[in-house]
Amino acid sequence: METAGYGADGTGGDMGRTEGAALRLEPWTEDDFWLLRLHNSPEMTAHLGGPESEEKLASRHRRYLELEAGRMYRAVLADSGQAVGVIGFWERQWRDTTVWETGWGISPAFQGRGLAAGAARAVVAEARAAGRHRYLHAYPSVDHAASNAVCRAAGFTLLGPVDFEYPKGHWLTSNDWRFDLASG
């Protein structure tokens, strides 16, 4: 899968320094359910409607494994293979057309190092290689400064705020960020 360099902005206790390291995306597998559990905390889901039940996590895991268009990945440090997060892209109907949508989560111990932006750049390359759609969108909450910064750092263009339902039944105001996959 795609390997992307990223700039880190610090060290992380026993995780060591990761500056200048490369990030790799590996396809989601049956063995990756633990990452969903790890990210199912109030801290990680504050902008997504809160933690999910075990049943909903299992359903999400199935959807990740069975995506018909797009793909989910675990983001890993290229040098050690250590999983640091989740990212992917999938189809969404948006304003009378079908686009790719992306979303991500970097494990708390690895946040603040530029890993999410590196993963976002890598998933842009994967969506571009998949073809099919011209645009890749991300819809972070307008209040989620870190995810909006990831979009900016990864080269997405801010189109503005929109009302967005995620998860089903939970409405929020999100920013619509778009990456033109046809551009250089």
TrEMBL record:
PROSITE patterns to which the protein is assigned, alphabetical: GNAT (PS51186)
Entry GO MF terms: protein-N-terminal-alanine acetyltransferase activity
Gene Ontology cellular-component annotations: cytoplasm
Domain N-acetyltransferase: 23-178
Keyword field contains Acyltransferase: yes
Keywords from the named record: Acyltransferase, Transferase
Top-level taxon in the UniProt lineage: Bacteria
InterPro entries: Acyl_CoA_acyltransferase, GNAT_dom, N-acetyltransferase
Similarity-based family: Belongs to the acetyltransferase family. RimJ subfamily.
Protein name: N-acetyltransferase GCN5
Species per Swiss-Prot/TrEMBL record: Streptomyces spiralis
